[in-house]
Amino acid sequence: MARNVTKGRKIGTTILAWFVGLVIFFPILWTFLTSFKTELQAISIPPVFVGFDWTLENYATIQTQSNYFHFMANSIYLSLGSTALGLIFAIPAAWAMAFSPTKRTKDVLLWMLSTKMLPAVGVLIPVYLMFIRFGLLDSRLGLIVVLFLINLPIIVWMLYTYFKEIPGEILEAARMDGASLRKEITQVLAPMAVPGIASTILLNVILSWNEAFWTLNLTTSNAAPLTAFIASFSSPQGNFYAKLSAASMLAIAPILIVGWFSQKQLVRGLTFGAVK
Amino acid sequence: MATLHTKSAARAMMAPAVIVLLIWMIVPLAMTLYFSTLNYTLYNPFSTPFVGFENYSYFLTDPTFLAALANTLVLVLGVLAITVGGGILIALLLDQDFYGVNIVRLLVIAPFFVMPTVAALVWKNMMMNPVYGVIGQLLQSIGLAPIDWMTDVPLLSIVIIVAWQWLPFATLILLTALQSLSMDQKEAAEMDGAKALSIFWYITLPHMSRAITVVILIQTIFLLSIYAEILVTTQGGPGSQSTNITYLVAQQATSYGDIGAASAGGIVAVILANIVAIFLVRLIGKNLDA
Amino acid sequence: MGQIHLEKVRKAFGDVVIIPELDLQIEDGEFVVFVGPSGCGKSTLLRLIAGLEDVTGGKIVIDGKDATTLPPAKRGLAMVFQSYALYPHMSVRKNIAFPLKMAGMDKAEIDKRVDYAAKTLNLDNYIDRRPGQLSGGQRQRVAIGRAIVREPEAFLFDEPLSNLDAALRVGMRLEISELHQRLKTTMIYVTHDQVEAMTMADKIVVLRAGNIEQVGSPLELYLHPRNTFVAGFIGSPKMNLLGGNEAAKYQAATMGVRPEHIRLSTADGAWKGTVKVSEHLGSDTFLHVESPVHDEPLTVRAGGEFPVHAGDVVYLTPEPDKVHRFDDKGLAMKGNGRAIG
Hints:
Chain A has 276 residues and is mainly α. In chain A, 71% of the residues lie in helices and 0% in strands. Chain A has two domains: 7-59, no CATH class; 67-270, MetI-like (MetI-like fold), CATH 1.10.3720. Chain A starts with 6 loop residues before the first helix and ends in a 6-residue tail after the last helix. Chain B is mainly α and 290 residues long. Chain B has a single domain (24-263), classed as MetI-like fold, CATH 1.10.3720.10. Chain B has helices at residues 4-35, 54-61, 63-94, 101-109, 116-127, 134-141, 149-152, 154-179, 183-191, 196-224, 228-232, 245-254, 259-289. In chain B, α8 (154-179) crosses α10. Chain C has nine helices and 18 strands. Chains A and B meet through α1, α4, α5, α6 and α7 of A and α1, α3, α4, α5 and α6 of B.
């Protein structure tokens, strides 16, 4: 804003904006507060805001009773594994599309995008049956592959839009300087694209972390990530609110922090470069 | 524009990604198509006679299907209306100058990072529970009767939960579009004597129109396949009041073990999604050359 | 050694022919400039020689060996790009060392060569900076440094000065010329600026639409342009080209005379005209004169100050032995012809 706004108006806007922000954030804030209450305080009428005896008991209970870290570890495995696999496949593909485009490049990109639009439920049954057949049900490997496949188009797209911004002349210079294709990508392109690759990783970790169709349908316990862990709290009766809150906070906290840091890149990734 | 050498290298580099996606798209889809013509249940998986379009006629004439189709439409349109309308308003608000703008931005986008199962459970128990939920207590404190959200208005409840999850997405994208509007344009309009409302109507809104289209199309893709939110709250009920197509299809397979009908339903879902996808792909394709 | 022979080289992108068959000989140690208007194919030609593009037909022979299908790195050529194409994530030292590292040279030798190159290019004070922290001229020197450490058979320059401001450009032009004097390595230099071509080249190749219009030393091109295109392209300001009656007086379809070869007078002369714009530089005076003999203003150069201004009447007389004559195909005709009447 180039012009000064009157002080009164600015204060008015501040109050309104904070009110809207807090209303939207309220469920998360409330969950956060409740996670430190005793079960009794959690359901007290009228509700207490901060004037309660803060306790970490719920977090301890969650870990001992439900083995939180097992699910947390699975979430990390799945999101990092599928992202790493995605980069291995997507970096070369995005390199080719950005720097050696042909008449068909655009079609290939759009086709990849269209696979992302295939509703999961359309292929759930064969994938489910194949998972049974190959013993992949409730295995981390199987889920990593599925998450990798459903996010591959987004990874390719994001990398493609970032690579496009790198001048091709620099890669040609590397070629003139005697760099092999592998060195051209690993020593010239990748270091230059670090910010783009980092945002791609962040977005993809967020998407995999929160994926809740395949992770719910293809796991039972062994490979189950946090989405399934939370789903098991589906019907807590009465006095489980505090523990549900603690479990929820544990499930969303890591990704909430990652997400807050990567908010700028999100727009670009989620709109396939259509809005920057 | 390169040498034959780099061109063939490019093809080789693209091949793995293209091939895995091609397999991922074709093989399961072909299998779904094939299963959809069989009388195939998990109770008797060894006898799967060919039945032609019977699964389709069964699935499409099932009253639950029509209910699910209607629910899907309500869900998608309801969430779109709330997120786009609310997103525009909040984006306009966040574009203003005020104290703590960065913190409020973080507060507003936070719900997007909450995994669907957590969002649904938190809303179901902490917010919407008629006795202990915050909303119920709020209503009671002003003398109104609490609402049993999940039983009385299950579909509306899910619309609210999903809209809460997607409002940040719409806001963030619309805000990005808003901030790319050059000050010059607004100032020129002001010099021409335009009032704030006409500036919004004739300058700001047209500038955001493409971002709005993108928001609508991308959200539609995701909203068509809402699943976890239903699973952990209403489980589609009561009856089929909050069952959407995705949930119905998954239910056919996992609860009733009817692979044939579920496959037919999956194909129907694919066709529905494709109608939207065609528009989205065209829009993004146009943008590619620019 | 740095001989490059192009034999019947052709380049087309699909149906679009960029370079129809072309032959060219570049001798060892020559400074060759490809010059032409934008879109003439000069950069494409350079990229073909570099190996960054495939030829559609023909052969590229470097030092007697067929290099047509060799990858860029195997051709022994170094290139300086228009955008400098420095590696932004590497220091100046690492940028210059990169080709040597790729060649697998040992560390001590790399350091020795990089230090030497940095010293000769006055880069020693910047050696640990990143390209982003350098000025345009310094980046240009790093790009040159990266090219010279390889001790290539030939250097390729793709419009290397076009991103620099005017003052810096003159300085870099001198530096590149000096570099050529010192290294005596073949250099191929692409530019659209005929002043760069005239001042730097041993041999100029004038290109238009992928065709070679003329090859020759700067003076040859200036004195004996082969056709109207070269005549109009080489020399600054441009040669005046007149058709119709005036050309007929010289038994030509077109007659040309350079601005510096027209005698100016306020009293009498062959062509009467009115000054439209006068540019007084002190050392020279450029006049743009409207005259009934030509539908565009004629450009005239007078040495020193010539005190006329817009609206004044002047008389112009082409120096008869400096007149160029072209036939109806635009090709130069022998002799100066004789003005009739």
